[in-house]
Task: inverse folding
């Protein structure tokens, strides 16, 4: 995994729940990740799916991903091309699901230093988010987490560790 990512910001607020990230009405009718991506954030930002580019970075306030434990709320964003999520705080299960699905995720107050469309750089190993308005810090991602992301998620990582 590259330890640095530069991307365009999509800025959101506090308490964005999993039903807003991936509408619950599709939970049992859509299983293909590519189709999930077509519905990412549709109830929050109707222009997101048409305009998101590979490597874009979501930056949000507190409690991103609260709500249910459904992995679709991570899968749809990753499949849409989101390169990372930076938020003031995350719901614990969302944080874990993101790591399991190899979507880099960091807890940082960078939301205070960005606007929609800004270009920012996240250095996962150094623990910095560089924005047009300053640099924000976070605890660097541990080597074990970087390995899981590099391997494509928890299941591929475990298979690799087991030699399968």
Result:
């Amino acid at each position: 995994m590259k330890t640095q990512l530069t991307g365009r910001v999509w800025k959101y607020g506090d308490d964005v729940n999993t039903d807003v990230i991936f509408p619950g009405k599709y939970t049992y009718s859509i299983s293909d990740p590519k189709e999930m991506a077509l519905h990412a954030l549709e109830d929050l930002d109707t222009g997101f799916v048409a305009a998101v580019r590979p490597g874009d970075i979501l930056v949000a306030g507190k409690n991103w991903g609260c709500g249910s434990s459904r992995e679709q709320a991570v899968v749809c964003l990753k499949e849409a091309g989101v390169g990372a999520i930076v938020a003031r705080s995350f719901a614990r299960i969302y944080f874990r699901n993101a790591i399991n699905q190899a979507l880099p995720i960091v807890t940082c107050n960078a939301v205070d230093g960005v606007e929609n469309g800004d270009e920012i750089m996240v250095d996962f190993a150094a623990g910095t988010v560089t924005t047009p308005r300053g640099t924000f810090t976070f605890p660097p991602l541990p080597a074990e987490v970087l390995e899981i992301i590099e391997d494509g998620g928890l299941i591929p990582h475990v298979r690799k560790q087991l030699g399968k």
